[in-house]
Batch of 2 targets.
Target 1
Amino acid sequence: MSAAARPPELGLRANARQFWLLVLVNAFVGAMIGLERTVPPLIAEREFLLTSSSLILSFVGAFGLVKAITNLFAGRLGDRYGRRPILLAGWVLALPVPLIIMLAPSWGWIIAANLLLGASQGLTWSTTVIMKIDLVGPHKRGLAMGLNEAAGYLAVAASAYTTGWLATRYGLRPEPFYLGVAFAVTGLILSAAFVRETLPFAQLEAQRHPKAGGEPAPTLGHILKEGVWRNKALASVNQAGLVNNLNDGVAWGLLPLFFAASGLSVTQIALVAATYPAVWGLAQLVTGALSDRLGRKGLIVGGMLLQGVSLLGMALWTGFLPWLFASVLLGLGTAMVYPTLLAAIGDAAQPSWRGTAVGAYRLWRDGGLAVGAIIGGVAADTLGVPAALIIVAVLTAASGLLVAWRMPETHPVASVAA
């Protein structure tokens, strides 16, 4: 029987080739974000002479808002029409992004490029997440999410550092963004030539699910409504995801400018900016699998509290090495949270509407980038960057305490043991 005709079989080992191909594809997805972790805030300040933190953070807010909305439709459309077409559409949207940034005559063009990048990321990253969940089935979900997010954020780190190094050597534009053209073209070719549809795997799992043949899949409106407050698992995960990306958006947009004003070189800024996603990426290789053994809730709570401590350190400490240490702590805290939240959504949602649930969660999570741009920008403009970081640190710790109080354990083994 040919590979194309072979019936689907759940499991990481049974689908190793497609799984690792999707890991590679997601590395290119992450590399596209890495293009923007170091250089664009410096372009805003040094080329376009912007002084308002709110205006500079607008590129993060634009990215987050569009990505959040696109996430929602990516999941729903993937459940209805298949995952692969959504992935390909996302890569097509990515193609013009680096070209626009290289040639942008004003800050408005940078924002427009981020609107496209947000839509692209919403389609590509959401779809690679859902496709891996489809392939592995229920037993290695945390490990799968750890591998997926590790690949993406290690690529973010490598791209962030490399663009910073290129900016130091050649200037802020256009050379650092030549990489983006290569990333987008390679990601599209890999996806079009080698990635296969995974919706049949989700349909197989749905047939085996205890509630298969029961109630019909809930509507999108119902899932969104339940995820606001009524469903304790979905609501807890959604708010934690939002706050996690709220602090990431503030770190993304404000920290390069904060470090530059304090006298760090572009290379040092790039190293601190890259350390956070590098630790985040590497540690997820452990934390995702750990959540399969210990459960989801404890890692989420601990990770949010650690993020709060690290952001407080960013505000109160001074100097390259202390900030580098705080960046390590922020990466560790985020690694505890990021794949675990995705795995918890996979636990709580039935296979037949999992894509929609993941999309709804990512709507909340990436909406945090837009919220962070507003809160961080206003706070930085009125109170200063250190005060903005302290405010975000308190919000992050409070989110972790809310999870501790309200979220039930979603992992079936851990919840039975408890």
Target 2
Amino acid sequence: MWYESVGKRGSSEIGSCLMRFIDLKVHEGTREFSFYSDNCAGQNRNKCIFSTYSLLAQKHNIVIRHTFLEKGHTQTEGDSMHSVIERASKLIPLFTPDQWYTLVRTAKRSKPYVVTEMGKEDFFDLKALAKDTILNWDRDVENEKVSINKIRILEATFRFPNKILFKYDYNEPFRTIDLLTKGRRTIDVDLKNIQLKQCYKGAIPISKKSSNS
């Protein structure tokens, strides 16, 4: 969780949260990850998230798979969590971000939610990462045009560096995108040694509407 002056809610912020979660779980011994989400292009289905997966797969020698749920069938445990938090928030007045953190931690008694408080130093510019590490996003290795909006399953694996595997249908074989090759052009990128840039140097101004609400 974070509040409005710390970060926005775009692909860089969502990707930074995924990065922090994966780094933690790798430290605990996890080698394979499976994520499920809706099809929101601004937060989930975009080059920033996919380049982040490619980076982490090589950095940690892991496998990351992301499944996009069918439209109209995207309800997940996250929706249930939001409902629990919303009901709890109606019972007490809330005035500061810290109170929201406490509310979420205590909203579910049987199995409390774990809250990670994100600071501005935790958010990285993943749009810059995608720009620096992706040359090709238009054609697969068979020179077929890639339709990003139709991808159902995506996978980044240490076994295929700088490549993204994807499926349009859950039951078909994986297709492959070579991120570093476009036609006769190729770039050389060492993801294990790339330096990430931070998103924000200072606090984000809060809008007048938010400050008065």
